[in-house]
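In this supplementary section we document a worked example of the pipeline. Step one takes a protein sequence of length 121 as its only input; no multiple sequence alignment statistics are reported here. Step two produces a three-dimensional model, which step three serialises into structure tokens for compact storage. The input and output of this example are shown verbatim.
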Amino acid sequence: MPRVSRIALVGIVAVFCAGLVMGQRNREKEDSTVRNLQGQVTDPDGKPAVGAVVQLKDTRTLQVRSFITQENGEYRFSGLRTDTDYEVKADFNGMSSDTKRLSNFDTRKNATINLKLNKKG
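The serialised model returned by step three reads:
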């Protein structure tokens, strides 16, 4: 391989690696504004509520996202903004949980809020 080609190849590899490093830094910056919420929904007896509907409300835009609990009554929401408050509650078979708030002052990247269903009446 001629010397010029090797120099060109080394230059291309260097530019490629620099791009990867910059991309990683940008990804880290993006990640600092994003968080996740997870938890478990249980019935009044403490048993997991599989199939409960968990609603997450963005208090800034009033947009509502829903999640149907999986095995063990677990739910999760990802890609939530760190500068926004959210309200979360669950409904299942005529029962509801209290509404709980995920505050923008909560700095956890992976917050956990468990919800307990209450009997209506």
